[in-house]
Write a structure and sequence with these properties.
It contains 30 helices and 24 strands. About 1% of the residues have low confidence. GO terms for molecular function: ATP hydrolysis activity.
C-alpha cells in the first residue's frame, strides 16, 4: 500500500469492563483482560472497524491488553498480519471537565504504555488501582473550566505536547454537551477543531448542525468537524461501531486527526466514503539516466508531485503516459507543441541507453493489471491478476487501462484541436463507446456478408430467369420439329411424342434428388455440430450443492436432446441418401430408373427407324439433351435460391441494426454533452449536430470515381447538400439508394434509355453527365464501402462569456478555456487524471475554486498533479505527496524522489514549506479559511 493517507473506519468512544455502566462480566486478572482484548479485536473485525479509541472515564487500564491483542492478531490463514493491516488502537480517555461538559482526549496510536500514568497525572486524575475491577466514581475536573486551560495543562508537559487531540461532546444540548445554553464563549474560544457525538450526526438537531458547520453567528461562525461515536459499553459488542466515522490519515497520530478535522470535506465521512476503484497503483522504472531506478506508489485518490524545476516531476508523468500508451493529440507543430516528439526524445534520451523497462501497476475494479513496456523497441506486455505476462498491443492497453493526461500548458492548447475537446465528452463514456464501436463493426461485417449473399441471390435470380426462357424456347423448337416429321408409324410418332413428357418427369425426379442431397448434406453438418456439443458437455459442478440435483436433471435432459437429435439426424441423412443415390433393389426410384432407361432404348430405336429425317432427328436429339441440361441447371439454381430466400430480409435487418447503432452512439454522446455542460457549471455549452461532417463519405466517393471526370467541387456540393438538408439522414439515405441503382446498372447489357433515374442526386447539385459517368464507373463494391461510411455527427463548443451570452469556445482566452476544462475534468467520473502543472493554465483568482473542487473530484476519479502551487497541494488536501530534489546539491543533471508522505506527516509538511513558494502561507490559509 502507498504511504499516503487512506480512510479508516473508526469508533472513538469505546469502553471496557472497568466502566461503571459496563453490561457484561468483569475482567480483573491480566489473563482475563488479555482474553477480553482478543475477543474485542475479533469483534472489531466482525464489525469492519479498522481503528478504535479506548476511552474509559479517567482511566487507561485496559489499553495495554487491547494493544497486545491487536499486535498478536493473525490473518485468516494463520500468517502474521502486515503492520498496515492491524487494528489501530488509539489510547484515550473520556474526561468530565469543569467547563462544564465532557470531552475525549486521544493520543498518538504509538503513545507508550508507560506514559499513560503521566498523562493522567498531568490532569490531576486519581483513579482506582489497576487491580480493581471498576473505576472509581467520576470526579469532575473542576479546575479546568475552559478548553484553553485544558490545552495549557497538557502542553505544560513536553512528552504530551503535539501528541494529543481534544474532542468536546457536541451531542445537541444534553447535560454533557458543550453546546448547552451559556457555553457560547467557551465554544468560540476553544482551540479544538473537532468534536464528537453520541450516535449519528444525522440525528442531531438542525440548530446543532448549523453551529457545527459555522452557520450560526451567535456561536461565532466557528466550524468544527463532528465525529460520530457509539459510546459502546457492552460485552456482546452489539453497539460497537454503530455508528462509525471514516477518517483519513497516513500515520495514526493526533496530528493526523487534527488535519482530518481541518479538511473534513475530504478526510471525514459519516457514511462509507467513495474511493475510486480504478487507479494507477504504482510506477517502477528499472533504470534511467536522469532518475536512476525508480519505484513510486500512488494513492487511489489525489497524489501530488512537488519539487524544484528539473527535478523529475514531469518525467515521472511522461513515463506513466508512455508505459500506458497514452496517445497525445496529433497535429501540425505550428498549431501547438508536439508532445509525442517530446516524449519520444525523453524515452530515447533517458531509458533506451539503459535497456530500461517501465512497469505500471493499474488496478481496475479491484483487479491488478501490470503493464511492462520496453524502451528498446516499445513493445508492451500485460499481466492480469495472477496470470502471466503476455504480449499485447498499444491499442489493447489504451482500451483496457485508459487515462486522461495533459502535459504542461496542454490544457491551454486544447481548443485548437477538435479531437482534444471531444476527449472531454468521450473519456467518461469510453467503455460504452468502445462497446458500441464493436457492435457497429460486427454489424458492418454482417452487412458485408448479407450484401454478398443478396447480390448472389439477385444474380442467381437473373440466371434462373434466363435459363427458363432458354428452356421454353428450345422445348417449343423441339415440339415444332416433332410435328414436322412425316412418314412415321403411329407407334413411333406416339413414342417420339412421349419424349417431352419423360424429359419433364426426369427433370422433376432430378430436382427431388438434388433436394434430398441438400437435406443429406445439412443433416450431416448439423449432426457434426450436435456431436461436438455432446463431446464437450462438461460435468455438473459440485457447487452450488443445494442445486446439484437440479443441475444434474437439466444436464441429463439436455444430453437426451442431443442424443435424440443425433439419432433423428442419422435417420434423415440415411433416408435422403436413398433418394439421392436411387439405390435399392425395389422402390419408386429404382422403378423410375428402369422404366426411364427402357423408354430411352425404345426412343432411340424409333429415331433410328426414321432414317429419312436424319438431320431433323439429330437436331431434335441435340435439343432434347440441351433441355435436359437446362432443366438440371434450373433445378440446382432453384435449390440454391431456396437457401438464400431470406437474403433481402437479412440484409435489410443488418442494415437497420447498423443504423440503430449509429443512432445509439449519437444519443449517448448527446447525453454526455448535456452532462458535460452541467459539470462545467454552465461555463461550457456543448451540443451535437447530427449528420454534420460528410468529409469521410465524400472522400470515399471521390476515390471510387477517380478517372470518371466528375468534378470534385460537385462532390463537395453533394456533401454540403446532405448536411444542410432539412432532414440530413433522409437526404443521405436517398443519395445512397440512387447510387446503389447506378452501381448495379450495366450500360453494356441494358437497353438504351434504361439508366436509373437520379432525382435526389440531381437536386443535390450533380448534372445528367455526372450521373452517366457515375453509372459507368461506380461498382457494387464501391457502393458497399460508401454505404458503410456514415455522415459523422459533430459537437459544437461554446464558452459562457457572461450570464446568458455564449461565444465560440475558441474565442475565449487561454485562461478561461483551461479553467472551464479543468473544472469539467474535476466534476466528471472517469479514468485516472494526470496533469503536469495545471496552475500554469489557470488564472490566479480561480485557484481556490479549483481547490474546493478537488475535495469532491478525488471521490470520482484518481488525480495525479505535478505542481508548484502550494494551495493545490495543501488546501487541495493531497492524500500523497512525493517531493523531488536533485541527486547532488547544485547538480541539476539528475533528479530523485527525496521522500513520500502526506500532510499529516511532519516530513511532508516541512518539504512543502521548504520546496514550494507560498507553502507556509498555504498552511496558514488552511487554518484560517478551513476551520482552525
Amino acid at each position: 500500500m502507498d504511504r499516503g493517507a487512506h480512510f479508516y473506519r473508526c469508533d472513538f468512544q469505546v469502553h471496557t469492563p472497568r466502566d461503571l455502566r459496563w453490561a457484561g462480566p468483569e475482567a480483573v486478572t491480566d489473563d482475563e483482560r488479555l482474553a477480553y482484548g482478543r475477543r474485542f479485536v475479533e469483534a472489531c473485525r466482525d464489525k469492519g472497524l479498522q481503528a478504535i479509541a479506548v476511552t474509559d472515564h479517567h482511566c487507561m487500564t485496559f489499553l495495554p491488553f487491547i494493544r497486545r491483542a491487536a499486535e498478536e492478531e493473525l490473518a485468516a490463514d494463520g500468517s502474521e498480519l502486515a503492520p498496515e493491516d492491524r487494528l489501530v488502537v488509539f489510547p484515550g480517555m473520556e474526561l468530565t471537565l469543569g467547563v462544564p461538559c465532557q470531552a475525549i482526549v486521544i493520543f498518538d496510536a504509538d503513545f507508550p504504555n508507560d506514559m499513560f500514568s503521566l498523562a493522567m497525572t498531568a490532569l490531576a486524575i486519581t483513579q482506582n488501582d489497576a487491580a480493581q475491577s471498576k473505576v472509581r466514581d467520576v470526579v469532575r475536573l473542576g479546575a479546568i473550566t475552559t478548553f484553553s486551560e485544558l490545552k495549557a495543562k497538557l502542553d505544560a508537559h513536553g512528552y504530551l505536547r503535539g501528541r494529543y487531540i481534544v474532542l468536546p461532546n457536541v451531542t445537541d444540548e444534553g447535560q454533557h454537551s458543550l453546546l448547552r445554553a451559556g457555553q457560547t464563549d467557551k465554544y468560540i474560544g476553544m482551540p479544538c477543531v473537532g468534536g464528537y457525538s453520541d450516535g449519528r450526526y444525522d440525528a442531531l438537531r438542525e440548530g446543532t448542525k448549523n453551529k457545527l458547520s459555522g452557520k450560526d453567528r451567535s456561536w461565532g461562525h466557528k466550524r468544527i468537524a463532528c465525529i460520530q461515536t457509539s459510546d459502546s459499553r457492552r460485552d456482546d459488542h452489539t453497539t460497537l461501531g454503530v455508528p462509525s466515522t471514516w477518517i483519513k490519515w497516513a500515520m495514526p497520530t493526533a496530528e493526523a486527526l487534527r488535519q482530518a478535522c481541518l479538511a473534513q470535506e475530504s478526510r471525514v465521512a459519516h457514511d462509507a466514503p467513495h474511493v475510486p476503484e480504478t487507479f494507477i497503483a504504482g510506477l517502477s522504472v528499472s533504470n534511467s539516466s536522469f532518475l536512476g531506478p525508480l519505484d513510486l506508489d500512488l494513492n487511489p485518490q489525489y497524489s501530488a508531485l512537488i519539487g524544484g524545476r528539473g527535478t523529475g516531476k514531469s518525467t515521472v508523468l511522461e513515463y506513466l503516459r508512455w508505459a500506458l500508451c497514452d496517445q497525445p493529440p496529433s497535429g501540425d507543430e505550428d498549431e501547438a507543441p508536439n508532445y509525442q516528439a517530446r516524449r519520444r526524445r525523453l524515452i530515447e534520451g533517458t531509458l533506451k541507453s539503459h535497456l530500461a523497462t517501465v512497469d505500471v501497476t493499474y488496478v481496475l475494479n479491484g483487479v491488478q493489471h501490470l503493464v511492462r513496456r520496453a524502451s528498446v523497441d516499445g513493445s508492451v506486455q500485460m499481466k492480469i491478476g495472477a496470470g502471466a505476462l503476455q504480449p499485447c498491443t498499444e491499442e489493447e492497453v489504451r482500451a483496457l487501462l485508459p487515462i486522461q493526461a495533459y502535459s504542461q500548458k496542454q490544457l491551454s492548447d486544447v481548443s485548437v484541436r477538435i479531437e482534444e475537446l471531444t476527449r472531454f465528452i468521450t473519456a467518461p463514456i469510453r467503455g460504452d463507446l468502445d462497446r458500441l464501436q464493436r457492435h457497429t463493426l460486427d454489424r458492418a461485417n454482417r452487412i458485408r456478408e448479407a450484401y454478398t449473399t443478396r447480390q448472389r441471390f439477385r444474380d442467381l435470380t437473373r440466371t434462373l430467369h434466363n435459363r427458363q426462357l432458354e428452356e421454353r424456347s428450345i422445348s417449343q423448337q423441339a415440339n415444332t420439329i416433332r410435328a414436322s416429321l412425316t412418314g412415321l408409324s403411329d407407334a413411333d410418332r406416339a413414342l417420339l411424342d412421349q419424349g417431352q413428357h419423360y424429359t419433364a418427369a426426369g427433370s422433376l425426379v432430378a430436382s427431388w434428388k438434388v433436394g434430398a442431397g441438400t437435406i443429406s448434406q445439412k443433416a450431416r453438418e448439423l449432426r457434426q455440430l450436435v456431436h461436438a456439443q455432446r463431446a464437450s458437455l462438461p460435468p455438473v459442478p459440485a457447487e452450488p450443492a443445494a442445486m446439484k440435483e437440479t443441475l444434474e436433471a437439466a444436464r441429463a435432459q439436455y444430453d437426451g436432446l442431443l442424443e435424440s437429435a443425433l439419432a433423428s439426424l442419422s435417420e434423415i441423412a440415411d433416408a435422403a441418401r436413398v433418394i439421392e443415390g436411387g439405390d435399392g433393389a425395389a422402390g419408386p426410384w429404382e422403378a423410375w430408373k428402369t422404366g426411364h432407361a427402357a423408354f430411352q432404348t425404345e426412343y432411340a430405336a424409333a429415331m433410328e427407324r426414321s432414317s429419312s429425317h436424319t438431320e431433323k432427328l439429330q437436331q431434335l436429339r441435340s435439343m432434347e439433351a440441351r433441355v435436359a441440361e437446362l432443366a438440371a441447371e434450373t433445378t440446382r439454381t432453384r435449390e440454391t435460391l431456396a437457401t438464400l430466400a431470406t437474403a433481402d430480409e437479412n440484409y435489410a435487418t443488418a442494415r437497420g441494426q447498423w443504423l440503430d447503432a449509429q443512432a445509439e452512439h449519437d444519443d449517448l454522446v448527446d447525453r454526455e454533452c448535456a452532462a458535460l455542460t452541467a459539470r462545467s457549471g454552465g461555463l461550457i455549452r456543448v451540443g451535437v449536430k447530427r449528420y454534420a461532417d460528410p468529409s469521410a463519405f465524400i472522400a470515399n466517393l471521390r476515390s471510387a470515381l477517380q478517372g470518371s471526370r466528375v468534378q470534385s467541387a460537385r462532390l463537395e456540393a453533394l456533401g454540403e447538400a446532405i448536411t444542410t438538408a432539412a432532414d440530413p439522414k433522409s437526404a443521405w439515405l436517398a443519395a445512397l439508394a440512387e447510387l446503389e441503382s447506378l452501381a448495379e446498372y450495366d450500360a453494356e447489357r441494358g437497353p438504351p434509355g434504361t439508366r436509373p433515374g437520379a432525382v435526389a442526386l440531381l437536386d443535390m447539385g450533380l448534372n445528367a453527365g455526372d450521373i452517366d459517368r457515375i453509372a459507368q464507373h461506380f461498382t457494387a463494391e464501391n457502393w458497399l464501402v460508401l454505404s458503410l461510411t456514415p455522415i459523422e455527427s459533430m459537437p459544437n463548443y461554446e464558452f459562457r462569456a457572461r450570464e446568458g451570452e455564449y461565444i465560440p469556445f475558441k474565442n475565449a482566452s487561454a485562461g478561461q478555456q483551461a479553467t472551464a476544462l479543468l473544472k469539467t475534468l474535476l466534476n466528471q467520473p472517469g479514468p485516472p487524471l494526470l496533469i503536469d502543472q495545471p496552475e500554469e493554465d489557470l488564472d490566479n483568482p480561480v485557484m481556490l475554486e479549483i481547490v474546493e473542487q478537488l475535495w469532491a473530484a478525488k471521490k470520482l476519479r484518481q488525480i495525479v498533479f505535478a505542481s508548484h502551487n502550494a494551495n493545490l497541494v495543501v488546501n487541495g488536501d493531497a492524500e500523497l505527496v512525493a517531493w523531488f530534489g536533485y541527486r547532488t546539491t547544485g547538480d541539476q543533471s539528475r533528479g530523485t524522489i527525496k521522500g513520500v508522505g502526506a500532510i499529516d506527516v511532519e516530513d511532508a509538511r516541512d518539504a512543502i514549506k521548504q520546496i514550494m513558494e507560498g507553502g507556509e502561507a498555504a498552511f496558514h490559509l488552511r487554518r484560517e479559511k478551513y476551520g482552525f
